[in-house]
Amino acid sequence: MKTTLKFLAALLLISNISFGQTLFNKIDSIVKDNYKKNPEVGISVGFINDNQEYYTAYGKLNKESSINIDKNSLFEIASITKILTSNLIAQAVIENKLKLNDYIDDYLPKEYVLHKNLKNKIRISDLASHQSGLPDLDFGKLIELNPQQPVSSVTEKTLTAIINNCSELIDYGKYRYSTIGYTLLGQILEKVYGKSYDEIIGGKIIRPLKMRNTLTKNFNVKNRTTGYNPNGGIQEFFTWNITASAGLVKSDASDMVTFLKAVLNKETTIGKAAMITEKIFYKDEKREMGLGTNIITDDKNTLYSKSGDSMGQSSIICYNRTKNWGIIILLNQRNSKMRQNLLNEIYETVLK
């Protein structure tokens, strides 16, 4: 009887692997077709289905390189960093370091002095779901000052001036994408753990998962891709600074699949934290938001996703907890339309 059960289990495993491979062959075909139409854009894709990993990539590390992009090629994941930060916030909840409905007042560095109209108004969950109403960085002006490193001039002094001079939350409770919100979440994490954001993400995500090519301050590695702006000009990777928790982590397809594997496993700390981030904290006629996570629901599926755009690269992560799959798409050019169209085609024709 035991032998029969083991045999059936082996058959089931083989069947699942075969099904996953069939799915990925279709995904690879779509990726390859998109690359043929856009040969100037390098692509790296990782897919996980029932714990089985699959990878494909097209293009070179840069236009002058002879080295092919692969699953270990380094990209800017940009605002996908926010999913990592929101997971850390949820881990802090699990550890009773904070509560999502706590007001931010007592968690901010002492340099912040909130106007009386803002006191006991903004909750941690408001920051994480982009509905705090706080003013944000003026990226247009920052790009004018330094097109290659626009956030390099942002300091704690910059942030405190913006927050301390704010006297009204004109759209509190309404969705407005916020870099400052996630920068503040990074500072809140630093306060509750007494460590830098770099140390926290290293100790709670990167090292436990052995994500050896997920990098923070030092990303001068041989397998780094070159970023290109929409016009094809070379774009530097953003250097690490105070806005790191909003979008400055670098990674590769292999490490992001490792992260997805942990997210989809309800028994891991990261998986338990992810389920907290997947709860609906904001909803209107256009969107549903978890903590840093877009929630997309149709009649058959619920997807969780987050996109990222630096000045020179685009990316997107998406997963379906019920069907136990996840995907990461990394492009070495800022091309949000191509990134989104690629995911949409893969979902509509293969994963739906």
Automatic annotation (TrEMBL):
<dbReference type="InterPro" id="IPR012338">
    <property type="entry name" value="Beta-lactam/transpept-like"/>
</dbReference>
<dbReference type="GO" id="GO:0016787">
    <property type="term" value="F:hydrolase activity"/>
</dbReference>
<dbReference type="InterPro" id="IPR050491">
    <property type="entry name" value="AmpC-like"/>
</dbReference>
<protein>
    <submittedName>
        <fullName>Serine hydrolase</fullName>
    </submittedName>
</protein>
<keyword id="KW-0378">Hydrolase</keyword>
<keyword id="KW-0732">Signal</keyword>
<dbReference type="InterPro" id="IPR001466">
    <property type="entry name" value="Beta-lactam-related"/>
</dbReference>
<feature type="domain" description="Beta-lactamase-related">
    <location>
        <begin position="33"/>
        <end position="338"/>
    </location>
</feature>
<feature type="signal peptide">
    <location>
        <begin position="1"/>
        <end position="20"/>
    </location>
</feature>
<dbReference type="Pfam" id="PF00144">
    <property type="entry name" value="Beta-lactamase"/>
</dbReference>
